[in-house]
UniProtKB/TrEMBL annotation, chain A:
Domain of life, source organism: Bacteria
Cited InterPro entries: AAA+_ATPase, ABC_transporter-like_ATP-bd, ABC_transporter_ATP-binding, P-loop_NTPase
Gene3D superfamilies from the UniProt entry: P-loop containing nucleotide triphosphate hydrolases
Descriptive protein name: ABC transporter, ATP-binding protein
MF-aspect GO terms: ATP binding; ATP hydrolysis activity
From TrEMBL, chain B:
Keywords, alphabetical: Membrane, Transmembrane, Transmembrane helix
PANTHER family named in the record: INTEGRAL MEMBRANE TRANSPORT PROTEIN (PTHR36833:SF1), SLR0610 PROTEIN-RELATED (PTHR36833)
The keyword Membrane belongs to this UniProt entry's keyword annotation: yes
Superkingdom in the source lineage: Bacteria
Listed Pfam families: ABC2_membrane_6
Membrane-spanning residues: 25-47, 62-82, 115-133, 145-172, 199-221, 227-249
Protein name: ABC transporter, permease protein, putative
Amino acid sequence: MNAIEVNGLRKEFKAYSSRSGLSGAFRDLFTRNYKIVPAVNDINFTVKQGEMVGYIGENGAGKSTTIKMLTGILTPTSGSVIVNGMNPHRERERFVQTIGVVFGQRSQLWWDIAVQESFRLLKKVYKVSDADYNEHMDHVIKTLDLEPLLDKPVRKLSLGQRMRCELAAALIHNPPLLFLDEPTIGLDVLVKLKIREFLKEINEKYNTTILLTTHDLTDIEALCERVVMLDEGNIIYDGALKSLKERWGEGKEISFEFLEKAELNHLETLTGDLDIKWELDERKQIFTAVTGDDEEIVSQVIARTVAAYKVRDVKINEPSTEEIIRNIYDKGMLQHG
Amino acid sequence: MFYISMFFQYVAQYMKTRLEYRADLIVEIFSDLLFQAVNLIFILVVFDHTEFLNGWSRDEIIFIYGFFLVPYALFSSFFNIWDFNERYIVKGELDRILTRPIHSLFQIILERMELESLFGAVTGLAVMFYAGSRLGLEVSWSDPLLFVVFVLGGVLVYAGIFVMIACISFWADARTSIMPMMYNIGNYGRYPVDIYNNVIRFVLTWILPFAFVGVYPAAYFLGRDEWYGYSFLTPVIGLVFFSLSVFIWNEGVKRYRGAGN
């Protein structure tokens, strides 16, 4: 069963542009210039029940707009969205019973009242029975370590504490689908780890589908097998995170620091028959060989260089996911530009 | 049924929040009472100088004013939507509202209620009893019932108009100054409409029917039978305007653009 089915989804916004100067302002009074900007441009994807999907893109790529259409907040301009077998916007009130939402920058909880009171009110809002609530939430509260926070008003919580409470609040009705928009923004590493662990656990226990947007790619690496990448309203990649690395990861870099003075020319002639490129850093200390993914070439380069010079330090770097993604965006711009 | 139980849940929550700030609560109740007392004295002093106004006696005018205060108090306790644009559209709070399984307008009413305003209803009743006893009005068995119906009608009129104005935010981005203006216009409903010229009277009856919050229903209790037709229209106008406003609201929510993160 598919949790999310999106077909030809499109959302356009009218963007008004104002003319310059006072006379321009007067003209704007009568006829405003606007152009129609597609924030989300005919995208298609499906998410299966129980999948954890990372939804990534730069600011303004259309992530939030998509999430808002999937959660029934915004009406699509065209295309179809079926989430949990329903049309989110048309059957909003019935639909939102089946999803949980965490917006990292917006609180779901009541500012002035104790956390447990917020939970209690949400329990009523979602019509959760006492038995279900106790069984499910006891576990959530224990795992997220919320017990000491329950009787504190939300305004007195730190960001990390609040985020954990937000997450628990989104799960009160144990929804089969969870939307997380920047859930770890501004959190320290320990809280991040706790949240990730918790998400993995509920995914395993309840087969909860999770759609996650974040700027922190370590979140995605830790949680998601699949990523959907968005650029200027278009999906530019949809698939496994691993093959993303294989396809776009541009080989390895081997950096050498030598005890004696080395010459770039000499290094180049040494490895002239291999398909690599040598680079020198600004301080003329570190020589870097950029290679492909071929392990053979990597070991050849090291063997020949070490034989020729005394070496202080050797490092082999693989590009991080972050670098890969930056890379894709630079190229993606060219393709769509 | 669910909505009624949610209503009481939120009221309970509201009380809890209020009790948390005990000092605040006491100060607020005190200042509310003081405000109402000043209001009461002010009404009596102002109307002391008007013996007759276009065929309405001083006590009748005070009675109308008193009646007006009751639906107005109910309206201000539950329809605090004057800052809807800033709070919910610009700050994007509506996002949160829309991810919960309760009608969006109802949630906003619940979130924004301010029960202290109900004190105004007490003042209104006091004013009505004061003026009523001076006029020698008699209370028949049907009066309390009709009073409730007319008050609810008046609340719906007020609510309908203000919800419609709040809906402008769904179509236009800019902040408008219509809200405060409308509060001013609303005040005209508390005086007998036949003191105004015909255009204003028409507007206050059919377009911005604030007259149905004050003078028309109050005329019934004053035994002014030339206005009875209008009096009994009060709940009808209330329902029509409020239904229309909910319809516009629902259309507006579809056009909601959200706020950028």
